[in-house]
Every structure is written in structure tokens, then in C-alpha cells.
Amino acid sequence: MYEITVIGGGPVGMFAAFYAGLRSADVLLIESLSELGGQPFNLYPAKVLYDIAGYPAINGTELTAKLIEQSAHFEPTIQTATTVTQIETVEGGYRLTSDQGDFLTKTVIIATGGGAFLPRKLAVDYDERMDGHQVNYFVRDLENYRDLDVAIAGGGDSAIDWALTLAPIAKSVHLIHRRNEFRALESSVATLNASTVVQHTPFLINAIQPEGPLVTLNLKEVRGDANVELTVDKLLVNYGFMSDNKQLKQWDLTLDRNLIAVDSQMQTSRAGIYAIGDAVNYPGKLQLIASGFGEAPTAVNDALSYLYPDRRAALHSSQLYH
């Protein structure tokens, strides 16, 4: 029976497993996919992240490699390609039922993120055979965009990050957004305004048509009559993702807006079960990797206090690492 089992092998789950190792806990890390890394590794491995402490810039693949290297220091047990379906209370802890068998654990930390993610599709009819060719929802390799004319649809952090990342690589970058204002960090917007990225606001994509290996976009002005035609090599759609956390409803947890409700110690409605990262909701919650990194030590420390009330937690990192 493990002392702590972390469900979810994304950045926050990996850091939770590492910190539990710092506290000398016996740790099991379970990930449903065949590889660790979560969203940054599987959805946008080439995307540059700017809000990871200690790294001015790092992409999803590099961040995953660093976290795997870090967590390996304490040699946690790692179980990939395993989906937990039930969390059953047993004497001394919990039985986790999965498609790869059962696991026993004294406490649980859920770090499943937003669950299964699907990109929000274009709201216009188009030939979906263009997906993965002229139309893309993910970027696996930046070199696929080198010296090309690229259009990006969206106005949030991800769309602007991609525009800034591709600007020095692509021949041209066009950013299409339905508002004049962007929903992104002020510093990113300032950098965007000083960049070579061509902004098309406030416009929506009204129609798309393949032109051989290229794609022609018809842009319609929002609350206006203007129309613009734009022909590019690739369209990158960044309208966000729809998440599916249906397994949470099977785990008998109190939910808040389809996310796990937790208290200030990251404790769920079931004693000994904690949740961190994008899977949780509480007043003031920020959906950032940086926030999840801060929540992980809180959950681990409280889990060990729950198991060993008389054991005093170390106050500083220097007292932990060896």
C-alpha cells in the first residue's frame, strides 16, 4: 500500500510526485497516456511557455524532460497507459480500480488537469480533409511552418504566444480575432503590437476554401460590412479546448463547475483525497502551471500530516533535499 498515489502525469502531477519524494514518501504516479507530460507535451510540445519560474522561456517538450529528470531523483513507481475508473474506500486507505488492475494507497492526489481535451473547431463548414494539412489545431514541429504564410485564429494567450513564436520562423503571420482587444497577458500584447504580426481585428472567418496546397480565408468584419480575402499556406486555429472530466463524477467527489472543490489545503470532500492543478476550483483559482506547482507541496504536506499527525514537516527546501 503506497503512502501517496498521484493520479495524472502532467507537469503538476510530476512535481507532486517529486515533492512527495522530498518528504520521503512511498509514491505511485499513474498516467492514462503512454507517456508522461500532459498537455504541454501532448497538445503543444513546441509552444514556448513564459510563466515557469526559473526559465525565461521553455517549450512543452523541454519542460517535460526537465520534470521527468527531477522526479526520477527519488525513483517513484510510475504506471503509464493506466486509467483509474474507481476510488473505493478500504481499511487503511483506498483501492484504485483501473484498466491495468487494482492499486492500494493510503492517500490520493488527483492531478488530472482538465481531463480529455478536444480543440474547439472552426464554426464554419469546410472540407475537414484539410485538417492536418492546410488547417491545424496543434503544432508538433515548428519547422513545418518555416518560410510559410501562416494565419492564426484566436485572441487568447495561446494564439498570441503562437503568433510571437512563429513570427521569426514563418514568412508572414496573420492574427485573426473577433475583437479589437486581446484576452492575453498585457506584456504579450505589447510584444505583439511591436512585432511583424499582421493583426486582422475585429474579423471572423466567414469561409475557407482550399486553393491547391494553400487555403483562402474570407474574413468578415464584426458589426461591419468589410470583407477581406487572405490566402496562406496554413491556418492554425486557437479557439481553446473543450474538456471532459466525466470520471470525476464516478469518484464521489464534490464538484464546483465540473471541477473538484477543494479547501485551502487542497483537500477534497473525501478525507485523504486531495486535488491540484487544472482539475480543481476554489475562490481565486488561476489556471496556470505555476499555480499547480504551488498547490502540490500543500497537498503533499497535508496528506502526510493526515497520515502522521505527530510528524513535523520540514520548513525549508534545504532541509529536505539530499
TrEMBL record:
Residues 3-300 form the FAD/NAD(P)-binding domain. Its EC number is 1.18.1.2. It catalyses: 2 reduced [2Fe-2S]-[ferredoxin] + NADP(+) + H(+) = 2 oxidized [2Fe-2S]-[ferredoxin] + NADPH. Pfam families: Pyr_redox_2. GO terms for molecular function: ferredoxin-NADP+ reductase activity; flavin adenine dinucleotide binding; NADP binding. Binds 1 FAD per subunit. FAD binds at residues 31, 39, 44, 84, 117, 278, 318. Keywords: FAD, Flavoprotein, NADP, Oxidoreductase. Belongs to the ferredoxin--NADP reductase type 2 family. Homodimer. This is Ferredoxin--NADP reductase. It comes from Lacticaseibacillus brantae DSM 23927. The lineage of its organism: Bacteria, Bacillati, Bacillota, Bacilli, Lactobacillales.
